[in-house]
Amino acid sequence: MALIVQKYGGSSVADAESIKRVAKRIVDTRRAGHEVVVAVSAMGDTTDELLDLAAEVAPIPAPRELDMLLSSGERISMALLAMAIHSMGFEARSFTGSQAGMITDATHGAARIVDVTPIRLREALDEGAIVIVAGFQGFNRDTRDITTLGRGGSDTTAVALAAALDADVCEIYSDVDGIFTADPRVVPRAKKLGVVSAEEMLELAANGAKVLYIRAVEYARRHGVLIHARSTFSSAVGTFVLGDGMTLPDELSDGQEGEQMEEPIVAGVATDLSQAKITIIGVPDVPGKAAEIFKIIAKSGANVDMIVQNVSAAATGRTDISFTLPKADAATALKALAGEQTAVGFESLVHDDQIGKLSVVGAGMRTHSGVSATLFEALSVAGINIEMISTSEIRISVVVRGDDLAEAARVVHRAYGLDGDVEAVVHAGTGR
C-alpha cells in the first residue's frame, strides 16, 4: 500500500461530469489498495469569476474579505467531489485548508506555508476514508484568518501535504499528459518528457511553462517529494520530476529510468507573454545610479527579471537601462520611477508591453558547446530579431516581439531536434 497525494486543477473539475470522472479515478486508486489524499482547485474559471464579481462591488476589495471570497471556490469543489465518491460506495471526507492543518503567514492573497499539521487527515486515512482537501488556502494562527496562497496555490498545497504525510508520490493532474518539450498549444509537435530534473523544471516554470508552478517545484525539491505530472483524461504514465539524488520507485518507473542515463542538452523551450519591458533613457553613467534605480523599483513591489545596460555614449556620458517585469507590475514601477526622475537624473521612460520571452532550458548545457549558436542561428534564419539576452548555467532566454514568439518557439524547438513524429494531445485546452 502506498500513500498517494493527487491534485486536480480547475479544468479537471470544470463541471459535474468532470467531477464524476475525477471521482472514478480516485476510487480506482483506492481500489488498488492505496491511501489517497486529494487537493482540488476551484471549478473551471470560478476564481476568475469571483475576482470579477469582487471588482464590481469594490474597486479595491479588502484583502481579508477577498480571501474569504476566493477560498469558497475550492470548498465547493471539495464537497462536490466527496459527494461523488460517496455515491460510488466509498467514504470520503472533505477538509478546508485550516481543517487540514495548512498553517500560513498572514499575507492575504500570497500567503506562504509555514507549517502543516495534518492530524485530522491522518485520522481519516487510518479510518479508511479518502481525504479531499481544498487547495489554495490556509490559516494564520496569529490573526485566525483564512488566507490564500496565490498563483499555483493548489499545486503547492498538494506538495506540502505530500511532504507532511510522507507520501510516496504527489500526482499533479492537468489536461496535458505530462511535461512537454514546449507548450503543445504553441508547438504542436512537442514531445512528452519521461523524466525531468527539479532544477530544469524550476527554470521551465520560472520562464513560462504552466503545467507546474515554481513554488510547488521549489517545495518539492526542498522536502524530497516525488512529483508525477499527468493527465486527468488519460491513464498513461506522465512525467516524473526528480530532485537531487532521487530515483523512481520500481513500481512507478515503467521503463522511465532509461531516460536518465545521460542528461539531454536541451530539455525544453518555454514561452512567456506575460512580461513588459521598461527602458530608462539617458541615465548618467556614474557609479551608484543602477542601485538608485533598482531600489526605487524594489520599493514599488515589482519583480524584475532581465536587465540590460547599454554602453555609455562618449559624447553625453549617459546610457540606457532596459529591464523586464510582469505586465501587472509595470504601471506601479513606471509611476515610482517617474516620481524620482529629477533625483536620479534620467531623461525619459519607454514602456513596451508587446514583448515575448523565449527560454531554452537543459542541464546538458553545462557540458556542451554551441547551444547559444543554435538558438541565434535558428532565429536569424526565421528573420526574428532579438532585443535582450539573459543566461544561467542551464538556461538561455531572449526577448523578441510578442507577435514573433510562437514562430520563434517552433523554429528553435525544431533546431534542437525536439520535434516529435505526431502532434501532442491537449485534452481540454487550458493547460491546467
Structural write-up:
- This protein has 432 residues and is α/β, with parallel strands linked by helices.
- It has two domains: 3-256, Carbamate kinase; 266-415, VC0802-like, CATH 3.30.2130.
- It has helices at 16-31, 46-57, 63-87, 119-126, 153-164, 198-206, 214-223, 250-253, 289-299, 327-339, 341-344, 371-381, 405-415; strands spanning 3-8, 35-40, 92-95, 102-104, 113-116, 130-134, 137-139, 146-148, 169-174, 195-197, 227-231, 239-242, 268-272, 275-284, 307-309, 318-326, 348-352, 355-361, 388-392, 395-401.
- The strands form five sheets. It has an eight-stranded mixed beta sheet with strand order 3-6-2-1-9-11-12-10, sandwiched between helices. Strands 13-18-20-19 form a four-stranded antiparallel beta sheet, sandwiched between helices. Strands 15-16-14-17 form a four-stranded antiparallel beta sheet, with helices on one face.
- The longest helix has 25 residues, at 63-87.
- The two termini are 29 Å apart.
- The model is unreliable at 257-261 (pLDDT under 50).
- Category from helices, strands and their pairing: alpha/beta
> Which strand order do you get reading across the main beta sheet?
3-6-2-1-9-11-12-10
Strand content: 15-25%
Radius of gyration: 23 Å
Ends distance? 29 Å
The largest sheet, given as strand count, sense and whether it forms a barrel, is: 8 strands, mixed
> Could you say what the CATH topology of the largest domain is called?
Carbamate kinase
Number of strands: 20
